[in-house]
Amino acid sequence: MTDGYSLKPNAREIRGPSPLIAIENEPEPILIVDPPLREPLSRGLVFIQYRAENIRIVPVFGKGALQVSPRIGHVHITVDDLPWHLVDASGETIIVVGLPAGEHKVLVELADPNHHVITAQTVSFVIPERK
Description:
Layout: H1 11-15, E1 30-33, H2 38-41, E2 45-48, E3 50-53, E4 56-57, E5 72-79, E6 86-88, E7 94-97, E8 102-111, E9 117-127
Parallel strand pairs: 4-5
Antiparallel strand pairs: 1-3, 2-7, 5-6, 5-8, 8-9
C-alpha cells in the first residue's frame, strides 16, 4: 500500500505502527533471519542481518514491560550450541568474529522482556580456510 501519490511505501509500511498508540489484538511476532553476508564470511567475519515484525527490539526488560503496546522484546544469540548466550536489544546486524574455519551455526531467539523465547531460527554456515 502506498499513499496514492508515489510508488514508495509510506512510513508505517516500513517502520510499523506508531509506538504512541496501543494496538488491540497484536499479531504474533515474526522473526526473519538471513544467512550470513557472503563477502565478510569469506574473510572469517560473520554478519547476520535479521528483522522482527509485530515486536520492537529495545533494551527494556522485566515483568512490567510485558504490558507495553506495541509489544517489545530482544534477541538471544547462541553460537555452536554453547551453554550460554548473548542478549542483544539493538535490532542491528549480529556480528561474530574469531570463529575457526569449518561448519558453524548461530541460533537467534526472539524473546519477550522476561526472556521467554517467542520464536527462533538457526542459520548454518561454513567459514572457509584462510590462505
